[in-house]
Amino acid sequence: MIKVTFIGHSCFALDNSKQKILIDPYITGNPVAKSTKEQKKADFILVTHGHGDHLGDAISLAKENKAMIISNFELCTYCQNEGVKNVHPLHIGGGRDFPFGSVKLTIAHHGSTLGDKLQYGGNPVGFIIRTDGKTLYHAGDTGLFLDMKLIGELDKIDLAMLPIGDNFTMNISDAIKAVEFLKPKKAIPMHYNTFDLIACDPGEFADGIKPLGTEGIILDFGESYELK
Ligand code: NI
Ligand code: MN
User: Which residues pair with 68 in a beta bridge?
Assistant: First the structure.
């Protein structure tokens, strides 16, 4: 069983009862994030791209927890330069086994610069995460892309975490198309209702994917779901 907690925006805490994994830990400054002290504990921190609403607290939490940051090569190097001791760089198409299972990087169509000076942060990515016998896909920030068909063909996805908020990422109708391509058993919408700019009704997404045979799981900020 994997406990999947939606902290808010694109931030999730995964707990397989042995290891804790944080994805895109945008907690400080996030107007909606709900996170307990326990959920800020992490053994591994996965970062999809360099934008502040994804890199978030990754560096400070990695130091606090002595956690390993897993990301693209450029962001891992940046985190190392910022004093993070333990990083594991991967790049698109590449994967690696870790104590909790494995991570493989996928493409994402977006940007990945760091801070106000727009320092280069490599290419943005998504993650295929295998743990506890389940396969999860976190798309990061991305527009819809046809290769999602290939991702769904190569991996039987149990749970997909997909952005739906429009403006910076897919909107709901594109995210429904993404589900058609990926064929996940379940999907959790993300990257919406953090700010007005990405406000939308996640219920429309859940209704839209039902006919495709995918269960939409809408979590409140801070709410957990047990993936069995
Ligand atoms: Ni972004
Ligand atoms: Mn974003």
Answer: 44
Q: Which ligand is nearest to the CA of 26?
A: 2
Domain spans, the chain: 2-211
Query: Model pTM?
Result: 0.97
Q: Ligand 1: distance of its center to the CA of 88 in Å?
A: 21
Helix and strand numbers (H, E) in the chain are 6, 14
Q: Which tokens in the block code for residue 9?
A: 């925006």
Question: Would you say the C-alpha torsion 164, 11, 9, 6 has a positive or negative sign?
Answer: positive
Distance 163 CA to ligand 2 centre (A): 9
Weakly modelled stretches of the chain, pLDDT under 70: none
- Give the pLDDT score at 36: 84
The bound ligand whose nearest atom lies closest to the alpha carbon of 192 is 2
**How far apart, in whole angstroms, are the C-alpha atoms of residue 228 and residue 149?**
24
How much distance in Å is there from the Cα of 228 to the middle of ligand 1? 30
| Residue range 2-211 in CATH 3.40.190.10 | no
Ligand 1: distance of its center to the CA of 18 in Å? 30
Partners of 105 in the beta sheet?
A: 127
User: For 27, phi and psi rounded to 5 degrees?
Assistant: -115, -55
Task: State how beta strands 95-98 and 87-90 pair.
Answer: unpaired
Q: Ligand 2 centroid to 50 CA: how many Å?
A: 9
